[in-house]
């Protein structure tokens, strides 16, 4: 009798699981076809790391024009203040600039105290700062590798430890992290960089699941991971682009990528590539045999060349 009851219990829960899966597939398909409604960011306090140039600067500009209070963090205070001043000339939203080496935990926590005291609790955290030296694996110097991990992944952890508590207290907030296409597929001459970008995706997925379980599904803190293709920011010093595919695989502009990041954040998308087709193509490629994947990579023949 116990065995029959157990069997019925297992079958019932399996049926429930199948129905849930079908429902969420239909829901995801609907949102993919018709899109998700964008939430307002007016009045939100948006903190952006690496805001002095590139994607970070464009994010600061666009968020300010959407009515958000923008907090710019960068190790280069001169360029950081330049970003803030440029925004003040065209936008009415409050903009602040703080110098901070986000790889330094003490500096991050010190700045977090200042921001809380002078502005308020950060509600949207965008971990954008990153570096990308390109070398053959054995040519990377020890200091380069340590710096890569300090900025590209450990800085995410320090900012999360500093700004997540207030989000948990209010059960309101959004975490955005910049991974990369090289966090979806390994790209030659970017071995340590790719490792940090895979780590960013793991960090975001695991923390999101931890909050879901610890809050018993009541957490309203959202997570968005962005995986851009190569961006024309100066980090990618020697891009390698297949001439036959150059019209389909151009370098993305910082402005375009920033727009896609904000759209994803406002629609609560969990993970997206820029352009969006990459994540679907790479997910499909993963189910193919290894040699088929190699053939696809050889056909695309794009990436980076090692720096001299």
Automatic annotation (TrEMBL):
GO terms for molecular function: all-trans-retinol dehydrogenase (NADP+) activity. It comes from the Eukaryota. It is found in: Membrane. GO terms for cellular component: lipid droplet; membrane. Gene3D superfamilies: NAD(P)-binding Rossmann-like Domain. Catalyzes the reduction of all-trans-retinal to all-trans-retinol in the presence of NADPH. Belongs to the short-chain dehydrogenases/reductases (SDR) family. This is Short-chain dehydrogenase/reductase 3.
């Amino acid at each position: 009798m116990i065995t029959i009851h157990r069997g019925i219990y297992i079958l019932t829960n399996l049926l429930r699981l199948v129905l849930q899966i079908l429902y969420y597939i239909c829901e995801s398909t609907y949102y993919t076809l018709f899109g998700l409604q964008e939430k307002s960011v007016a009045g939100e306090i948006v903190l952006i790391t690496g805001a002095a140039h590139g994607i970070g600067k464009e994010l600061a500009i666009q968020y300010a024009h959407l009515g958000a209070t923008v907090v710019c963090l960068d190790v280069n205070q001169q360029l950081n203040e330049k970003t803030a001043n440029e925004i003040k000339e065209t936008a009415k939203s409050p903009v602040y600039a703080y110098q901070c080496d986000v790889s330094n935990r003490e500096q991050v926590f010190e700045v977090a105290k200042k921001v809380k005291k002078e502005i308020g609790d950060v509600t949207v955290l965008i971990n954008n700062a990153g570096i990308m030296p390109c070398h053959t694996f054995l040519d990377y110097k020890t200091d380069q590798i340590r710096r890569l991990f300090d900025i590209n992944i450990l800085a995410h952890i320090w900012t999360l430890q500093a700004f997540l508590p207030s989000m948990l207290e209010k059960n309101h907030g959004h975490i955005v992290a910049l991974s990369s296409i090289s966090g979806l597929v390994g790209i030659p001459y970017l071995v340590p960089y790719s490792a940090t970008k895979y780590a960013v995706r793991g960090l975001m997925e695991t923390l999101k699941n931890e909050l879901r379980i610890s809050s018993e599904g009541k957490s309203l803190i959202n997570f968005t991971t962005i995986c851009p293709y190569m961006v024309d920011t100066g980090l990618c010093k020697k891009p390698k682009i297949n001439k036959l595919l150059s019209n389909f695989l151009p370098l993305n502009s910082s402005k375009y990528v920033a727009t896609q990041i904000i759209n994803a954040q406002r629609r609560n998308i969990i993970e997206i590539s820029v352009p969006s087709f990459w994540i679907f193509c790479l997910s499909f490629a993963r189910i193919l045999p290894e040699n088929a994947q190699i053939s696809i990579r050889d056909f695309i023949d794009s990436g980076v060349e090692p720096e001299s």
